TrEMBL record:
It is an enzyme of class 5 (isomerase). Its cofactor is NAD(+). This is UDP-glucose 4-epimerase. Gene3D superfamilies: NAD(P)-binding Rossmann-like Domain, UDP-galactose 4-epimerase, domain 1. Keywords: Carbohydrate metabolism, Isomerase, NAD.
Length: 326
């Protein structure tokens, strides 16, 4: 059996690929390298350079490598930017998923693990998000991920696709020093880049109704996330029952102040963050329960916040001057 990982040369996808390889599962990567890096793909794992929006390339990759299942990680992942680029977001995340599912159907590939997002919930009215929490996305990105879940559901009805979708908030850390998060929009790489430039990181809002007054968010280690994708793939291979959606959450979250303090301690950069006013629309606390995923996917938080920061920092230091700033 061969699993194709779309977006497998990116930060999250590359961790999934390595976890599949370590589990003894045959893997092929499809990635257009728009945000990924060919050096992230392990030696011996085929890399097909192409977009999920290119039906011919997707179909050829599935047939040539005898793909039996797809872990769909590829997509345009920047929620804030998606507000300014809605058409691009829908083209990549919705049309791309349609193209992928059509190619899978035509090749009789009947299992799919979808890398969804907790952005489907928008700003929930509860401080602990479960799979039963109402979805109300507030960006084209969140909307496109929800539509992706609907497309999988429709494909199940139409031709028996077996699938599950994994929703999560903030992915951090590194499972290997040669894999780093190069996103220009994620907190860890933003703060690390500022420290490299001797700039001072900022905390937006210190008067929230939280223990230390700063926002609390759900952070999970990328290696833990990758293992959940592997277990989901295994369950689909085995024909075991799966829920349509699983949250991958910490159940407690971490505050921005906690993160800054941990970064200062781990990196040795002695800084005091600038304190700024709240940003409009930032809720005080958003944390997800991972109980359902723990029951079915062996989900657990194997890494604490210090592990997350330390592993991410080691990868950033290892990248050195070769670290991209796009």
């Amino acid at each position: 059996m061969t699993w194709m990982v779309t977006g497998g040369a990116g930060y999250i996808g590359a961790h999934v690929v390595r976890a599949l390889r370590d589990a003894g599962l045959t893997t092929v990567v499809l990635d257009d390298l728009s945000t990924g890096f060919d050096r992230f793909v392990p030696e011996g794992v085929p890399l097909v350079r192409g977009s999920i929006t290119d039906g011919a390339t997707v179909t050829d990759a599935i047939r040539e490598h005898r793909v039996t299942g797809v872990i769909h990680v590829a997509g345009f992942k920047y929620a804030g930017v998606s507000v300014q680029r809605p058409f691009h977001t829908y083209e990549q995340n919705v049309e791309g998923t349609v193209t992928l599912l059509r190619a899978m159907r035509d090749a009789d590939v009947d299992r799919c693990v979808f890398s969804s997002s907790a952005a489907t919930y928008g700003t929930p009215d509860t401080d602990l998000v479960t799979e039963g929490t109402a979805v109300a996305p507030e960006s084209p990105y969140g909307e496109s991920k929800l539509i992706g879940e609907w497309l999988l559901r429709d494909a199940e009805v139409a031709y028996g696709l077996r699938h599950t979708s994994l929703r999560y908030f903030n992915v951090v850390g590194s499972g290997s020093e040669d894999l780093f998060d190069a996103s220009p929009h994620n907190l860890f790489p933003l703060v690390f880049d500022m420290l490299y430039r001797d700039a001072t990181p900022r905390i937006n809002g210190t008067d929230y109704d939280t223990p230390d007054g700063t926002c609390v968010r759900d952070y999970i280690h990328v290696a833990d996330l990758a293992l959940a994708h592997v277990e989901a793939a295994r369950r689909l291979d085995a024909g075991s029952p799966t829920e349509p959606v699983y949250n991958l959450g910490s159940g407690r979250g971490s505050s921005v102040r906690e993160i800054m303090d941990t970064i200062r301690e781990v990196t040795g950069h002695d800084f005091e963050p600038e304190l700024a006013a709240r940003r409009p629309g930032d809720p005080a606390r958003i944390v997800a329960s991972g109980e359902l995923a723990a029951r079915d996917l062996g989900w657990e938080m194997r890494h604490d916040l210090r592990d997350m920061v330390a592993s991410a920092w080691r990868a950033r230091v290892a990248a050195g001057d070769g670290y991209p700033t796009r």
